[in-house]
């Protein structure tokens, strides 16, 4: 993890992402900042990242307070040889992309299983796409019609809950019914794109976000804003889990303790 903290100076602003590998990166960052007596202002991408910042003695900040970050350290669900990444398995893709965009550079810290030559090879759960709840159905249909593959609404997963009752421990499987809701109050689609297609991922991210809401109320709302002089793109897609032209360097931890580095 020492490679991910080589940017430390007298005062530095860092975006902190989510994921198992970032836990170690944040801990190492906190330790190095303390040893070097460096002020590290950190902007989180999720509640988990916020707790990482606090637990490691780093300074919690926001993009309002720190509008331009020196670097963002984040994980990835998959990273190809051009450093295009799929993110959003944890559902925080919009915040993660915003923080990454307002950084001078983005660094990925992940394990070897996330490193691939082609997106979709290692990460097979589909590309996460954040959509407005009002139009997730039409958007899902449009994605499949235009680009092929399969798309599904992400639903809550089963969890095993343990409890104590009558002097004994019991466990039961509980399921929160309904779709997963992001921190922004939106739904998530997971698109399993056709692997036989050689997509231009940068272009694909833009095309996905051009898909309109396909709902009368959504269209009326957008038209009303346009009449008031606002420029509005009536897209039902909020953001995609495609991170293109953002990552400058990726570090992959191997099973033997070594680190592989990719730059593009």
Automatic annotation (TrEMBL):
GO cellular component: cytoplasm
Keyword presence, Isomerase: yes
Protein biosynthesis in keyword set: no
Family annotation (InterPro entries): NagB/RpiA_transferase-like, Ribose5P_isomerase_type_A
EC class of the enzyme, as a word: isomerase
Keyword annotations from UniProtKB, A to Z: Isomerase
Catalytic activity: aldehydo-D-ribose 5-phosphate = D-ribulose 5-phosphate
Cross-referenced PANTHER family: RIBOSE-5-PHOSPHATE ISOMERASE
Protein name (Swiss-Prot/TrEMBL): ribose-5-phosphate isomerase
Organism for this UniProt entry: Notodromas monacha
């Amino acid at each position: 993890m020492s490679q991910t903290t080589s940017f430390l100076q007298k005062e530095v602003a860092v975006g902190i992402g989510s994921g198992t590998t970032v836990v170690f990166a944040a801990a190492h960052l906190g330790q190095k900042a303390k040893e070097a007596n460096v002020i590290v202002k950190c902007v989180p991408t999720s509640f988990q990242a916020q707790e990482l910042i606090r637990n490691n003695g780093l300074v919690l900040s926001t993009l309002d307070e720190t509008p331009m970050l020196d670097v963002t350290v984040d994980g990835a669900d998959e990273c190809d040889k051009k450093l295009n990444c799929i993110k959003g398995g944890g559902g925080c893709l919009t915040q993660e992309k915003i923080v990454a965009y307002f950084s001078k550079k983005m660094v990925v810290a992940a394990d070897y299983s996330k490193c691939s030559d082609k997106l979709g090879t290692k990460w097979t759960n589909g590309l996460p796409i954040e959509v407005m709840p009002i139009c997730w159905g039409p958007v899902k249909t449009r994605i499949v019609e235009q680009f092929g593959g399969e798309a599904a609404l992400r639903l809550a997963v089963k969890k095993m809950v343990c409890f104590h009752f009558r002097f004994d421990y019991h466990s039961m499987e509980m399921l929160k019914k309904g779709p997963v809701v992001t921190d922004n109050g939106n739904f998530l689609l997971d698109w399993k794109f056709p692997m036989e297609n050689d997509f231009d991922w940068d272009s694909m991210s833009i095309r996905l976000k051009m898909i309109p809401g396909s709902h009368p109320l959504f269209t009326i709302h957008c038209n009303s804003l346009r009449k008031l002089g606002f420029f509005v793109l009536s897209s039902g897609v909020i953001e995609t889990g495609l991170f293109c032209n953002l990552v400058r360097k990726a570090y992959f931890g191997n099973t033997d303790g070594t680190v592989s580095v990719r730059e593009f």
